[in-house]
Design brief:
Elements lengths: L2 E5 L2 E5 L4 E7 L2 E7 L2 E5 L4 E6 L3 E10 L5 E12 L2 H7 L15 H21 L4 H21 L3 H5 L1 E13 L1 H137 L3 H15 L10 H14 L1
Antiparallel strand pairs: 1-2, 2-5, 3-4, 3-6, 7-8, 8-9
Length: 354
């Protein structure tokens, strides 16, 4: 369907690449080709849109074989319009200038033409073929006959139609006949299945017996190996106990030697520390005695010098020095408070002396 838009009394058509558009104004052909885009006036334009892409036409019809059995044929015909001008002249592909849809149903007419033509050739070949042959080779025969019949049909080229391919999907009889035809094959298949089942069961029984014998032999072998395993485990346990005992003895000896070495080292370290402490104490005692002796000598010398100095000084000077030292050692007096009682006593004593 073409895409048509309206603008101020004019129409604009935009076609698809797979659609062949023919635009007439009166008897004059203005536009002709696929995928066109143009402006036109609706009152004076006659436009046809012919699809030129490949189209699939599925068809299903019934036919009768030579032994009067009904069969259903499913086929697909692929066709295309190879001459759009001829097709537009033979069929009504005109579109509405406002909506762009076809005024008629041209594709339905083409489908009817192709279906009836193909059905005619299929009925012709099946009417001379029995049902068994039709079910075996009927699909190929019907396809070839339909393809030949459509290729030789003069009306199709006259309408501008080209058949691209023909495919026959299925050819089936009536359900009752199909079930009847399937019954012998099913019986044969069932017999083959039963025979295969019996053979499979016999093989299964034989395999189960072989499996049971293998399991019994495996159990016997397993019991023998388990006995060997028990013996080997006992031997390994004894060997492991002996190894552990030897390792414990070696470990005890090493621990005793290590303890003795540690004790000797600790004793030697203690002796060295005691000797060092005694030496340090003796040195300290000597140093303290030497210091005390030197201090005593210094004090004695200072005292002797002090005595010598004071021995040469007269008594008045010694009294003055004594008073000075006494004044230096007296406590500091910030203020003196004389009460009336004390002042009265002092005045009394002064008066008495006079």
């Amino acid at each position: 369907m073409a895409d048509i838009t309206r603008r101020l009394g004019w129409r604009h058509l935009r076609g698809a690449p797979t659609a062949h558009v023919r635009h007439h104004r009166g008897t004059r052909l203005l536009h002709d080709g696929p995928g066109l885009s143009f402006w036109f006036r609706a009152l004076t334009a006659a436009i046809s849109e012919v699809p030129v892409d490949d189209r699939e036409l599925a068809m299903t019809f019934h036919a009768r074989t030579s032994d009067f059995q009904d069969v259903a044929v499913q086929a697909t015909v692929t066709y295309r319009i190879s001459d759009p001008a001829v097709a537009a002249a033979r069929l009504d592909f005109s579109i509405d200038p406002d909506s762009g849809v076809w005024r008629a149903a041209p594709l339905e007419q083409l489908g009817t033409l192709l279906t009836e033509t193909a059905q005619q050739h299929a009925l012709d070949v099946l009417s001379r073929t029995p049902l068994s042959a039709a079910l075996v080779d009927g699909v190929t025969a019907v396809r070839e006959r339909i393809a030949q019949g459509l290729a030789g049909e003069p009306r199709l080229p006259a309408t501008g139609i080209e058949v691209v391919a023909v495919r026959v999907v299925a050819l089936r009889p009536e359900p009752e006949v199909e079930r009847a035809l399937r019954t012998p094959a099913r019986e044969q298949i069932q017999q083959e299945a039963d025979r295969a089942t019996y053979e499979r069961r016999a093989v299964a029984v034989e395999r189960e017996r072989a499996i049971a014998e293998n399991e019994l032999a495996s159990q016997i072998e397993l019991a023998c190996r388990e006995e060997q395993l028990v013996d080997q485990r006992g031997t390994n346990a004894r060997r492991e106990a002996e190894e552990h005992a030897a390792a414990d003895a070696v470990r005890a000896e090493a621990e005793a030697a290590r303890t003795v070495r540690l004790a000797d080292a600790e004793a030697a370290r203690t002796v060295r520390l005691a000797e060092a402490e005694a030496t340090r104490s003796v040195r300290l005692a000597k140093a303290e005695a030497e210091g005390a002796r030197e201090v005593g000598e210094a004090r004695a010398q200072a005292q002797a010098a002090w005595l010598r100095v004071h021995g040469d000084v007269d008594v008045a000077t010694l009294n003055a020095l004594t008073g000075t030292r006494l004044a230096e050692n007296l406590p500091r007096i910030d203020s003196v408070t004389i009460s009336p009682d004390v002042l009265t006593g002092l005045l009394t004593r002064l008066g008495t002396r006079e």
